[in-house]
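User: structure tokens for Chemotaxis protein methyltransferase, please.
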Amino acid sequence: MTTARAQQKLEPVPRTGEMERDFEFTSADFARIRELIHRRAGISLSDHKRDMAYSRLARRLRARGLDSFRHYLDLLESEQDPAEWEAFTNSLTTNLTAFFRESHHFPILAELVKRRQPPVSVWCSAASTGEEPYSIAMTLIESLGDSAARQASVLATDLDTQVLAKGEAGVYSLDQVKQLSPERLKRFFLKGTGSHAGYVKVRPEVRAMIRFEQLNLTDADYRLTSPFDAIFCRNVMIYFDKPTQSQVLSRFEPLVKPGGLLFAGHSENFTYVTQAFRLRGQTVYELTRDAGANARGSAKTAGAAGRREAVI
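Assistant: Done. Predicted tokens:
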């Protein structure tokens, strides 16, 4: 009896999550998923994302009628089906957003665009379900006025095509817009009635300012020729390793107009990743060459003032 009890204590206890799994999910499977999503989208999945990867991709196994992760990953690589790669990538991306999230950025954007020459353009590079690009568009209208805002545009891109479709539709529940003021709700949204009660829809004139497009920030082949007055790249770099972050930021540099700004997420710091951008304020960056020009201009002005004072 004593020996049996001792042996029982030495037996490994399965983790709760694994006991509930429908499919075998080995360390090799997870390592392969990590390699594939990094190669495909630049995303670095940490060890603690293992359960998340299982739960999200298990849906793809069920949809395809497969019995193991190994078979699914073999199919993914052998068939090279763009639709399945898209589903794989969409499954592993996280989309957490809200209207006017990290609100301190929008007054800075408002002051910036007031000083810019039209047409004003902003790139929202991680648009998710649309709350961020619509917040940008509302800020442009409030800052420039309705007529001037017609010369402004927002490019909204994301890797995940499913969330882009939701953003382009511009329909949100009342709970999703509850933090907006009554004035903004009235000015920028239409209230649903009948079967659409409990929802609002972004007004057509606001939606017309935004172009939604699928884009992979780590894709070396993406082409954006027109520079922007501001780029929002918030809460996406945290999913990339440092080399990938550096590559993404190096491609941003020529896409920012002189005097333009780059907005980052609250937990992101680009200071140790790139020399092209310099921190200007709380998670707001400017081109380093602009900062140098501004400093030289200030010094020149100060020097001229000193000379005038000496003459007097």
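User: Anything notable?

Assistant: Residues 1-19, 295-312 have pLDDT under 50 and may be disordered.
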